[in-house]
């Protein structure tokens, strides 16, 4: 099991995370990359890098043969799968071992058992691990499922046996809705996981999602490293994670820890794993699933234990025993993590793509940013939209929360729409501040999320920075020896127009220079005096009406500006009314909201459609998005075909509206 070269079969922030530990351990590292990732940070970070295929994941990061060939060509003796992609694929684990390589993870048997919800639940019941009452049998006929549902009672959950992440999952409160829920869950499960097998479970209402980090070696040692609370979720996808759980007691931790280590022993586990539980208000907990890999949220455990879990994974894969016993595990302070995604919360979290104009992570006491992006990199539609994780640690939960809020503001990420502002809002919600969030928190707190609007101070700062940039450019092209006369005018200075557009809105502004770095910016019914004190990209320090303000900023490739303040970011451009003439309008034109693959076109020219009807399905960043009719009418033209890769803004079809 000895090895000195590791191939990381992944990309993005987790690839960078593993590569850094490998380097710290003195090991040689190999990255793999698709055509879309040729210039990605994880490629530059490794000692060697091997191309494994085109941009699509199926032809690259999910291509077992290409990854094994890359290991052979690079001389790698071990493969770390990270998370996602092939990390929980039992066939991949077997193929790695069959190729004479070390798989840094559990053996294929454990992956296989825990990867099937039905098989995992049967194994946990046999091991005495508390489980939600339900049905996980092999008889998948409709009559059996309907009868078992009556036995379990409502509300209940219908779940895909082979998957996770909310796909193939339905909450059913009314027995009359069960047949349709079974059909839809089966269809989703088959499409997502290649299996339509289902399980049924009694729904635990408003629980906490609490998981236990376990570790096991090849010498029979199994311990846990405490818990993480992952209750803040959207559509069963984790958004905020923390350690320890705000309501945890030492007695409950010991009981959940015993159940988690019993679960690991039941499948002869080895390496890092996570046993997930639902915790109800009474303190009862139930097995949910086991993730047979490193978790996205593992940094919060690392920050409260002071341990490097990737280093432990590598050491265990090399045959070493665990370095600590259970009574030596020490939990210190509190850590909270948020996942920074390229997505638009105001548009139902639609994944976003584009070029990163500026990325500069926060630093400071108790702050950690795990990222796999860099300034100038293009966010691709081919992969998961998570860009980075921002983590804060402190002696108390409140200090960790405040540090995390500051870190979100100080992490400058501009050029692509992100959920940073939404994350900051979550951290400020009274229920989260009080540590009371359950899995129902987001659904109960947020109905619709409005597009953030800049206030007048943001507009004034953007105008001042744009004008200052233009002044600096003019000065650089002039013959003036210095800027001492910059802003001087014998008539006191006449106001100049500086109309700005932000999205679909236009602000009519005027500006008057006041000295070398001062501007009086006026709007329709307001004015602000802006003094630019310091410009050190990607941040600027300004004084607005006598109050200090620090913002992140980046100039775009035209003459616009990205501005970030308190985790919210905006894009401002000089308003050009004549440019709008080239834009296509009319509700009958339907264009792609993001780059993606056309999964299906469900209509043809001449078809009659109603507002809200599904017209086509696009796939981007591992998610499918339904394009719906904006109006009633008939299909006039269709411009794309199934299987076609299209760019954002590509016209998909047009509808001839019904005359009222």
Kindly list the characteristics that best describe this protein.
single chain, 660 residues, alpha+beta, Dna Ligase, domain 1, D-amino Acid Aminotransferase, Chain A, domain 1, 5 domains, 32% strand, transit peptide
What can you tell me about this protein's structure?
By secondary structure, this protein is an alpha+beta fold. It has five domains: 5-104, 3-Layer(aba) Sandwich (Rossmann fold), CATH 3.40.50; 133-202, 2-Layer Sandwich (Dna Ligase, domain 1); 209-445, ATP-grasp fold, B domain (D-amino Acid Aminotransferase, Chain A, domain 1), CATH 3.30.470.20; 456-579, Glycoprotein, Type 4 Pilin; 584-657, OB fold (Dihydrolipoamide Acetyltransferase, E2P) (Beta Barrel), CATH 2.40.50.100. It contains 16 helices and 41 strands. The strands form nine sheets. The chain has a ten-stranded antiparallel beta sheet with strand order 24-27-28-29-30-31-32-33-25-26. An eight-stranded antiparallel beta sheet has the order 14-13-10-11-12-15-22-20, with helices on both faces. The longest helix has 22 residues, at 456-477. It starts with a strand and ends with a strand.
């Amino acid at each position: 099991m000895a090895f000195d070269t590791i191939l990381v079969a992944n990309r993005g922030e987790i690839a960078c995370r593993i590569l850094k530990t490998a380097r710290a351990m003195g090991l040689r590292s190999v990255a793999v990359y698709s055509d879309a990732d040729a210039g990605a940070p994880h490629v530059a970070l490794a000692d060697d890098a091997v191309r494994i295929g085109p941009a699509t994941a199926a032809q690259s990061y999910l291509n077992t043969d290409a990854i094994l060939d890359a290991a052979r060509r690079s001389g790698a003796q071990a493969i770390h799968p990270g998370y996602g992609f092939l990390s929980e694929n039992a066939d991949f684990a077997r193929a790695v071992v069959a190729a004479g390589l070390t798989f840094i993870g559990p053996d294929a048997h454990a992956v296989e058992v825990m990867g099937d919800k039905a098989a995992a639940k049967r194994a946990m019941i046999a091991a005495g691990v508390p489980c939600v009452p339900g049905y996980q049998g092999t008889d998948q006929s409709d009559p059996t499922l309907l009868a078992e549902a009556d036995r379990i009672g409502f509300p209940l959950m219908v779940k895909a046996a082979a998957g996770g992440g909310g796909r193939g999952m339905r909450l059913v409160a009314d027995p009359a809705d069960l047949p349709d829920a079974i059909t839809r869950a089966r269809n989703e499960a088959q499409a997502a996981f290649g299996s339509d097998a289902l399980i049924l479970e009694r729904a635990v209402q408003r629980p906490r999602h609490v998981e236990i980090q376990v570790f096991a070696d090849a010498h029979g040692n199994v311990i846990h490293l405490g818990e993480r609370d992952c209750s803040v979720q959207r559509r069963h996808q984790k958004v905020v994670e923390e350690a320890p759980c705000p309501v945890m007691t030492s007695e409950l931790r010991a009981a959940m820890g015993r159940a988690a280590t019993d679960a690991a022993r039941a499948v002869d586990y080895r390496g890092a794993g996570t046993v997930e539980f639902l915790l109800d208000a009474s303190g009862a907990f139930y097995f949910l699933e086991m993730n047979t890999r490193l978790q996205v949220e593992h940094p919060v455990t690392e920050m409260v234990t002071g341990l490097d879990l990737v280093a432990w994974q590598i050491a265990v894969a090399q045959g070493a025993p665990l370095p600590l016993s259970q009574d030596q595990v020490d939990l210190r302070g509190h850590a909270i993590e948020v996942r920074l995604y390229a997505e638009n919360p105001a548009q139902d979290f639609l994944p976003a793509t584009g070029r990163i104009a500026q990325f500069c992570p926060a630093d400071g006491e108790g702050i950690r940013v795990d990222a796999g992006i860099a300034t100038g990199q293009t966010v691709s539609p081919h992969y998961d939209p998570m860009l980075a994780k921002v983590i804060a640690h402190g002696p108390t939960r409140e200090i960790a929360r405040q540090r995390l809020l500051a870190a979100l503001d100080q992490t400058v990420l501009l050029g692509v729409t992100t959920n940073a502002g939404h994350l900051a809002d979550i951290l400020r919600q009274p229920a989260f501040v009080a540590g009371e969030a359950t899995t129902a928190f987001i659904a109960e707190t947020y109905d619709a999320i409005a597009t953030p609007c800049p206030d007048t101070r943001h507009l004034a700062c953007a105008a001042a920075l744009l004008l200052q940039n233009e002044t600096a450019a003019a000065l650089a092209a002039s013959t003036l020896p210095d800027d001492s006369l910059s802003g001087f005018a014998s008539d006191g200075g006449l106001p100049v127009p500086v109309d700005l557009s932000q999205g679909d809105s236009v602000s009519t502004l005027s500006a008057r220079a006041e000295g070398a770095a001062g501007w009086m910016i006026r709007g329709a019914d307001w004015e602000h005096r802006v003094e630019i004190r310091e410009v050190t990209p990607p941040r600027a320090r300004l004084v607005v009406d006598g109050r200090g303000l620090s913002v992140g900023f980046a100039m775009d490739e035209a003459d616009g500006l990205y501005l970030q303040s308190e985790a919210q970011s905006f894009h401002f451009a000089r308003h050009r009314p004549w440019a709008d003439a080239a834009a296509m309008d009319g509700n009958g034109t339907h264009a792609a909201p993001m780059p993606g693959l056309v999964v299906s076109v469900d209509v043809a020219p001449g078809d009659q459609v109603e507002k809200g009807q599904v017209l086509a399905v696009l796939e981007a960043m591992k998610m499918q998005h339904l394009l719906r009719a904006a109006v009633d009418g008939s299909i006039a033209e269709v411009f794309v075909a199934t299987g076609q890769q299209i760019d954002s803004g590509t016209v998909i079809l047009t509808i001839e509206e019904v005359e009222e």
